[in-house]
Amino acid sequence: MKIIVVGATGTVGKTAVEALSGRHDIIRVGRSSGDVKMNIEDTASIRAMYQQIGKVDAVVSAVGHVHFGPVHEMTGEQFMQGITGKLMPQVNLVLEGFAYMNDGGSFTVTSGVTNRDPIRGGSAAAAANGALDGFVAGAAVDMPRGIRINAVSPEVLEASREAFDGYFPGHHHVSNEAVGLAYCKAVEGCLSGQVIIVE
Amino acid sequence: MKIIVVGATGTVGKTAVEALSGRHDIIRVGRSSGDVKMNIEDTASIRAMYQQIGKVDAVVSAVGHVHFGPVHEMTGEQFMQGITGKLMPQVNLVLEGFAYMNDGGSFTVTSGVTNRDPIRGGSAAAAANGALDGFVAGAAVDMPRGIRINAVSPEVLEASREAFDGYFPGHHHVSNEAVGLAYCKAVEGCLSGQVIIVE
Known about the structure:
Two copies of one chain form a homodimer. With 199 residues, chain A is of the alpha/beta class. Chain A has one domain: 3-Layer(aba) Sandwich (Rossmann fold), CATH 3.40.50. Chain A has five helices and nine strands. Chain A has a seven-stranded parallel beta sheet with strand order 3-2-1-4-5-6-9, with helices on both faces. The two termini of chain A are 27 Å apart.
């Protein structure tokens, strides 16, 4: 399969590349590095990426930044960062990707743990993740030509243990391999409309 | 209790008014009718509403419009209507409302069935609903001064049976009373961070 991985050098996206490369032709896409460069918050840049790459069998995205902070001190603009930085980039990858997706292909987006197991300051992240989980459930029933769509929703990665120390008390840490397997299930498996939880 | 109901004359908001009035002081807010008029998509208008009304014990919102259509024919702009028309208005009511919310008060937003039981053309709605469900889960753990937050997520209302005929095949239709009870549980009860499903 020819597979686009957006956010390929990120902590999460890297697990998808590790798990899928070898068996597949992976096109790494990133903001500042990778086989193709793209600004995920710019729809024109998404279109240019697809035009450059052409037809594919799968698109995996693992991107997104979100504002963290107490909800009672949060502005609407801060909340919206999760929409413009995590939700819309991944939704637009899907909406713009149909013309380039082969029959029977798949889209895989990445959400996260904060909507099912909340942490302090995580309300904007929880909203973005809930939107992505809801989107794949809603979109799956519309998909043409046997195309599938799923979300991978990982717990905190072992690789992020130090960076997130103290923010996720009592949360499990999952291995790169476990997260990579979720992307394999989404891309190589048969599910659609699912939130594939890694915890 | 002094309770603001935003979207008070809508099909869903009306059930909250019916269920809570009598026992409480209800301030009906709507775009073109009600005790106070407000444009829910304009943050300045939300602030003006709170300034006019002053301190309250509960805010209930039942508003939102969303684009319906097949995901593979949807533009990013159409998808965003669910964010700007359903998610952000209700989030902004919360973010702007802390200064006017009495200790131990509550916020109640309204999501819907489409993220847990998808329908054709409902991907943008499912995303908006998932975002709202995620937001209340995430926000509840941050809430200061004993303030609570919940979402009411109703199935199709009996009152909307004709309007939505054919769009929700096999879905249950719920009574105004059942939906009103969910708002009572959210406002008068003790739960927080919950999605109160009516089906």
